[in-house]
Protein 1
Amino acid sequence: LAGAVVAAAAGSFRTARTPSRRDQKRVAEAVRLIELNAERPLSLAELAGATATSPYHFLRIFRHVAGMTPYQFLLRTRLHRAAVRLRNSDATISTIAFDTGFNDLSSFNRRFRREMGEAPGAYRARRVG
């Protein structure tokens, strides 16, 4: 209680509302849409339209519910799919990058290293069996 009073007095009091069930459902719908279409470009407007919200409201609720932006979720989904393919197939790294929705190999390599902690080639080299 004392912390809330101090925060209110400092002018930084902000209530962290729990997202409504409706907003949680909208985010779940968007997550499904992203997972089903991760290999193709998805715009914020398309995702917002699919959940019957404005782009601004959609971005705000998605970030609040998922803890990241829709674009960050899309990138993470693509990278994790690429990681699975690197471990389970002999396709070239560039083929995997393009098939999972990346248009630029250097961007894929950089983002993969940032997310997985190592380059795609090193990640693949560690595959089991």
Protein 2
Amino acid sequence: MTNENMDLQQDIFAALVAKHEVQRELCNKLEKSEGEAERKAAYEDLKLELQAHAAAEERHLYVPVMQHDEGLDLSRHAITEHHEMDEMMETLDDGRIGKEKWDKTCADLIHKVRHHLEEEEDEFFQEARKILDTDLQQRLGALYQVEHAEYEQTHGDD
């Protein structure tokens, strides 16, 4: 993704849902990929997107929501799920695991990502909309997109 693809007029929720669609596409691509090289490349694309998304989402949605009592448990749960995905990616990045464990962990990661996106969109976002005022939602959308793009640019060629 390049900066030209950013729509800084999107509020935080529209910006996040747009990236959720990217993540769903990458999960589908990874699931359908054949051959080890293709699977690893598809995984690397998904990993970069998940890491950029989590870093920017935690800072520009979870932290503002956590500043309100009614947002604490919501944010804690979502951050826990991000941590679980990070642990799965650490396992996938461990060059010592066998193909069977890699495939199982990869399937678990895809399942976790899909569950997390659905839960965020169906529950977390509904509650967060009530907590954050419209003006703040708008500002956070731009901040999220800029940080996401910067993360991809600085980590994309690791």
Protein 3
Amino acid sequence: MGHLRHYLTCFILLTALPCLLSLLRCEEGQSGPTYESLQEVFDRKPLRPSVNLSTPTITNISFTLYAVLGVNEKAQILTTFLWLRLYWFHEFLIWDSENCDDVTRISLPVKELWTPDIIVYELLIEEGPCVDDDVSQACPYVYVNHTGHIRYDRMLRLVSACNLQIFNFPFDIQNCTFTFGSYMHTIKDVRVSPALTFKEMTENSQRYLQASGEWELVVILGDANILKFGVDEWDIITFWVVIRRRPMLYVVNLIIPSSFLMIIDILSFYLPPHSVDRSSFKMTLILGYTVFLLIMNDLLPSTANGTPLIGIYFSVCLALMVISLLETVLITCVLHHNSMKYREVPRWVQVFVMGFLGRLVCYRFPDDLYAKSEKQDVDLWVTTPGDSTSSQQTASGSGMVTLDVPILRQISKDLSDMHSYFSVLRKEDQLQDQWCHVGYILDFLLFRIYLLIITGYALVIIIMWCIWMNQ
């Protein structure tokens, strides 16, 4: 009977020994666990703090996105600043708060305790996957509750890989992933899970990003997965951080000045092409637009994956300005070509351009005064020798000075030559005016086509951006 009691006592002691070892000791008159009991825990730092090693240590992860420090579209790199917070359970750091002067939480040096090797899989540094002190400033202490739960805070400057999409720049939305998990411990040793809900993490981060830089946080989402390499499995949690660029800087510095230059190019069509060198004005405008693009080139993102929509917008605007210059050159050639005024306007040009296109663009022709003036001049200047004789007789009968018939004939011949010369000049003016009307009709038609193209192009750009913003 005594031997049975002895074996039963030994069995109870051996069963309760792990629990006794997991409780820290407190002394009367001392707040918190004793230094000796804590030192025993510090000596066990190399070992995972679990009484039963088959039970995995659960690590809860949460972070606050404090700032977006930089976005490198060409290298596909995102630089952020995070406040990372880790929670895990240490089974050897448990004490009775009632016996320890109601001390429920103490701070301990992190270098004396076992910590989970949680890394970010998208982290890009040259040294390796672990974060060094130059990149991340780790807090040297952790908070430990009397229940054994540890909270570890650290500030993390994260340089991570991200698939950046810049087609909708400056109205782009980027979706980057942060994957947290253990580097060495498999799913049998360390499990990870979110410490807060994704909505709470989003709200906490939005409070800091509202007044920070050109990016704003849209939402933080996440999902837990298992990463497999061969026969081993790692527990990971993936966070999707969706950020949106604030486009006001680029709208003011890029889109609005470009729109002003395009409006000036459109208004330049109202300059009279026959009296003003419109082509020189448009060439100066194109030169100014090119200088504008060179100055603003640093603000545009560059990447090998594609061209942003705003770059296509600038290229098309420059192409439209060149097309308007070519149209001005064509109209100037029609209006001011020296050989045009000596050439008759072809019949098909009169029918198609001055007839059909003139009515299409609602062109108003001025009153034709040349026919009336020509008829009056013919009645005034054209005379015959018989008329000269009668004029001589009438003048003699009335007592006026009489002239010889040869002199009158010479005067009549000179008047006929003058009339022929003026008729040729008038004919040239008529031909020049006809070509001017042809040029004006073509100018009105091409201007309306150019305006229609620009309007359609602007509507397409606006609709594309509106569809993107409403997604």
Protein 4
Amino acid sequence: MTEEQPSLSESQFGQALQRYQDGAEAADVIADFEAITRRDPRQAAGWTCLAWLQLLTEQPEEALRSAKTAVKLNAQDPQGRLNLALAMLETGAKGVREHIEIVKRVMVFSPELGQELEVSIADGLKRRPGWPALLKVQAWLAD
């Protein structure tokens, strides 16, 4: 395999992500990300996507586990922190504010990442209209 060729895991990740971005239902893509995280358990992005899909499909306990793994693997990823905060809100876990503050700091220091999060939030509200936890987090981030 040359350096230019993506690994099987990276290729499957890209394909699954593209399916989601093309409008596939979260429930239709979730198995892909479960397989990706089983095959490559150290890939933080796979866990981040899996947590997001679990949140969209109203699986908060599973999302909490996946988001914790994502943040453990990559503590700097604001989407992972956002997912963790959402899962914590939905499961009644304590410590949400800490993660929100970290996301807010990232948004200040990296406007492009802040824009990506805004797109993600808009996507979440489109796919799960009126999502109470996401509306709450959106308001906190706007403060």
